[in-house]
Design brief:
5 strands, 20 helices
Length: about 525
């Protein structure tokens, strides 16, 4: 005899478990929402590259030809075009586009949580599904990332939405078959995730190819549909950009691999996310002890595998632990689905397994509650706001054109197309990519009213260093606060120009002189 969710005594477990899970999920949502409200009220960028996304949206409206040109100056759209498309109406219709963009980030975060709930609900009861969805957001020191105006949030949300359509019930021949609605819904969602961030291609491969383990006809139809739509989309983008799209994507090849980066980032991420991996591991133990062999063939293994395929990407210079967020979602969802299958009473090692199954939602809810109450949501301080206000006011007073190796929000505020994206500058300069000669010649001509530099993002090329020191004078520095901490920015003005850099008390800025 096998009891499955929706049948028999274990359909939902004790009523208090459902109520407790609901209350806990609401509590996690409230804590997460409180952090979101603080960010909504913050008028400045909370990641130094958020401004470039707004700039892409404005350029899509005003100068679309600058998004995917065959040169690196002005800096092209480094990712696929979904986020610029989403930002275009925000920039066009709002006087405060950064805040409206954060509302949009809240929307894709809710989509992400809803997709996680749906993926577990297809296998488990409502209580466990709620608790698992809460668990996905509970480690706020990781999940806050979805609220940044970056490509990862919409990519992960659409990837999980695609999985909600496409995930097979079991990885067994003949266990499932794709309907037309599931096939097209999943294909469009996965392509949407790729349009947000190209690495979604890697994460999506198991969800597509895994169908050959379940139903070959469904696998063939899904592969043909995804490949056909993807190829048509690629050809369209190449045509619209006169070949600039693939040229721009090739710029990622200028980022070299960095020894030790993968192990450092992976270790940092595993340390922060360890409770969720332990949760998934206990699901495996439960599946073995409860005799639920179907859990070992759960379709969510494809989701976890897709997330883990991002591990090799961590070795590229410029990578960070956010590349592992799909794997974290996959681990939580797999754990929820494994715990959601009722034990096989004929083969279970102990009747305790039935009790564990009933109480699992409460345990997961408690884990989510513990995480959300013991982790820190990175939020700006009043001094962060004051420093950013002075910094940007100074740049606006100086006027355009500027050169900034971050923060790119400076370009947006000055209504200037992004000249260069800071974290890519050293690699593009080392590779002598077309367009970089413009920056060097403009520095020599003292064309920029202000140069804002992050020292470790300035090219190591001696020609860039010498042309800067020969034509510009150091005037000040500011330590701006962002989600990961503070970054020191140094400001230069053309030699011989009159500059008034007088930071007020309370801000993390100070005037400097050449040689400081």
């Amino acid at each position: 005899m096998r009891l499955t969710p929706g049948h028999g005594a274990t359909a939902g477990g004790p009523r208090w478990v459902l109520l407790y899970s609901l209350a806990t999920a609401l509590g996690v949502a409230l804590v997460y929402g409180a952090g979101a409200l603080v960010l909504l009220g913050y008028p400045w960028d909370w990641s130094p590259d958020e401004g470039i996304v707004l700039d892409y949206g404005r350029r899509l409206l005003q100068a679309p030809g600058t998004l995917y040109p065959r040169e690196a100056v002005p800096f092209p759209a480094a990712y696929t075009p979904l986020l610029p498309v989403l930002m275009a109406p925000v920039v066009a219709w709002s006087a405060e586009p950064l805040r409206v963009a954060r509302l949009l980030a809240c929307a894709w975060t809710m989509l992400l949580g809803g997709a996680a709930y749906a993926l577990v609900r297809s296998r488990a009861g409502a209580a466990l599904s709620l608790a698992t969805a809460a668990l996905v957001l509970a480690p706020v020191d990781l999940s806050y990332w979805y609220l940044l105006i970056r490509v990862d949030g919409p990519m992960v949300a659409l990837w999980l939405l695609g999985a909600a359509f496409l995930l097979p019930a079991r990885l067994g021949r003949g266990s499932d078959r794709l309907s037309r609605g599931r096939l097209w819904g999943g294909a469009f969602a996965l392509l949407g995730s790729v349009l947000a961030k190209p690495t979604a291609l890697v994460h999506s491969l198991p969800l597509v190819l895994g169908w050959f383990l379940v139903d070959r006809d469904s696998g063939r139809r899904l592969c043909l549909t995804v490949a056909g739509l993807g190829l048509a989309l690629l050809l369209l983008l190449q045509w619209l950009t006169s070949g600039g799209f693939l040229w721009t994507m090739s710029l990622w090849g200028t980022h070299p691999r960095q020894d030790g980066l993968l192990t450092d980032l992976l270790g940092q991420f595993l340390k922060q996310s360890l409770p969720i991996w332990i949760f998934a591991a206990t699901g495996l133990v439960y599946a073995w002890g409860g005799g639920t062999r179907a859990g070992w063939r759960d379709g969510a293994w494809l989701l976890l595998l897709g997330g883990l395929l991002g591990v090799p990407l961590l070795s590229k210079s410029g990578a960070w632990w956010n590349y592992m967020l799909p794997a974290l979602c996959g681990a939580a969802i797999l754990g929820g689905r494994l715990w959601g299958v009722a034990p096989d009473l004929a083969t279970a090692r102990s009747s305790v397994m039935l009790r564990l199954h009933d109480l699992a939602p409460a345990a997961v809810a408690t884990l989510a509650l513990g995480l959300v109450l013991t982790r820190t949501f990175p939020l700006p301080s009043s001094q962060d706001a004051q420093t950013a206000e002075f910094f940007y006011s100074f740049l606006k007073e100086r006027g355009r054109p500027i050169l900034a190796t971050q923060p790119e929000y400076a370009y947006f505020l000055l209504d200037q197309v992004t000249e260069m994206e800071g974290s890519s500058f050293p690699y593009l300069a080392a590779s002598k990519v077309a367009g970089l000669e413009k920056i060097r010649s403009r520095i020599a001509e003292r064309w920029y009213t202000t140069i804002v530099a992050v020292p470790h993002f300035w090219p190591a090329d001696a020609a860039f260093e010498s042309v800067l020191t020969q034509n510009y004078t150091l005037v000040g520095e500011c330590a701006l606060g962002f989600h990961y901490g503070r970054t020191r920015f140094v400001l230069f003005a053309p030699q011989g120009s009159a500059v008034r850099f007088r930071p007020p008390p309370g801000v993390r800025c100070r005037a400097l002189e050449a040689g400081s």
